[in-house]
């Protein structure tokens, strides 16, 4: 892995990647919005701009996209233009300029309706069939399919379906970290390891989520009485919740299993639920104040 380019470098994951990668590699960041992590203002919907930016680049990390918060504010056409058609232009420009691999930031959100079980939590991994609900989910899945079409011996594609990693109320983030959340710095580490892995597959998908303490045998009780399961599997976290007066969730509907990524990439999420408590106590603005009890 030599020269590196990050699309969407002004975004949350783009900035984390830039910080992680620039310590050891030559990194260029492109985005339509300026930031300290962005070297050039480039619109991925502009093929000519992409061609100029990709010259001499070996590895592209493609994080640029419209996301869930844009639903309802951006048109469906905008989602398709950026998330799908923009992705195809990234692929074409990569092939035209000799880029050897792309690491794509996707999302576990695209599992959509598949996340909801009947009377028990759903265990979600790379074999779970996505069932998109929103235009965001749908276009991210279609972007994955675009990459699958363009993947070849000359252009390896790694797709990382990352779980929730944006600021939320502390008690929610702590619980999410047990079953459907991950730290953005751990996401950046997973991207780096995916790029460093020169493997046989031209295309692969990884679920990137925090280390879960739960077992598949917990699925029904997670749905019915998650507090009991958390007290059993994560007693130290339960003690923190009791001490702080934080409310336990009433139900947990899914568990994201990142064991495949951990085994293949040699990746291990370093920041768990208890780290949320420490970050909150340290007044880390990444962790929002707890929700008010109703």
Structure keywords:
Rossmann fold, single chain, 294 residues, alpha/beta, two-stranded parallel sheet
Structure overview:
The structure is a single chain. The chain is α/β, with parallel strands linked by helices. It has a single domain (4-281), classed as NAD(P)-binding Rossmann-like Domain (Rossmann fold). It is 40% helix and 14% strand. The chain is built from eleven helices and nine strands. The strands form two sheets. A seven-stranded parallel sheet has the order 3-2-1-4-5-7-8, sandwiched between helices. Strand 4 (59-62), helix 3 (76-97) and strand 5 form a beta-alpha-beta unit. Helix 5 runs antiparallel to helix 11. The protein starts with a strand and ends in a 13-residue tail after the last helix. The model has no long low-confidence stretch (mean pLDDT 95).
Which structural class do the helices and strands define?
Answer: alpha/beta
Q: What share of the residues does DSSP label as strand, in percent?
A: 5-15%
DSSP E strands, number: 9
Secondary-structure element series: EHEEHEHEEHEHHEHHHEHH
Query: For the report, how would you describe the main beta sheet?
Result: 7 strands, parallel
Number of domains: 1
CATH architecture: 3-Layer(aba) Sandwich
Helix content: 40-55%
Quick structural summary:
The chain is α/β, with parallel strands linked by helices. Helices cover 40% and strands 14% of the residues. The chain has a single domain (4-281), classed as NAD(P)-binding Rossmann-like Domain (Rossmann fold).
